[in-house]
Amino acid sequence: MKVYLKADIKGVGMSGEIITVSDGYARNYLFPRDYAVEITSENAKLYATKIKTIEHRKEVIATQTSMMAERIGSTQVTLKRKMHHDGKLYGSVGAADIADALKEHGFTVAKSQVIIDKSIKEKGAHTVTVKLTSRLQPKLKVVVAAE
Which residues, in sequence order, are CB contacts of 45 under 8 Å at separation 6+? Predict the structure, then answer.
């Protein structure tokens, strides 16, 4: 049976795709949970146009995300923190601090997207990864300076 997916289903397909599944799976799982709609000869054209619209939207989002990745990669964030005389911080710089600093530069990034390889506990320049998508992960330069 051909169905149009309304939601992303792990291992099956993504929202906006037309896929073929077994009749039982569609009737017992997908339709009761409102995850899919059956493709019939009457509504096939309607869902074909929806797919084209969704693909176009995905392309636009992908280009915007790649442009954002380039801008993040060329950005340097400076954070001022209190520190000891030997250059070590009293605390550490976390993902939330970096996400807030990026927001000041005009980038809306969640703290879960900021990946810090090694904890930042001393002054100097550090490299942090910002995970926009599974493929786009620009490196960001974070400079920690004394207050």
Answer: none
- Ordered per-residue pLDDT tens for the chain, 147 residues: 999 898 888 889 888 888 999 999 999 999 999 999 998 888 888 888 888 888 888 888 888 888 999 999 999 999 999 999 888 998 899 999 999 999 999 988 999 999 999 889 999 999 999 998 888 899 999 999 998
Residue at a domain's end among 64, 91, 107 = 64
Neighbours of 69 (CB within 10 A): 18
Residue range(s) defining the domain that contains residue 116: 69-146
Which CATH number is 29's domain given?
Answer: 3.40.5.10
CATH number, domain with residue 115: 3.10.430.100
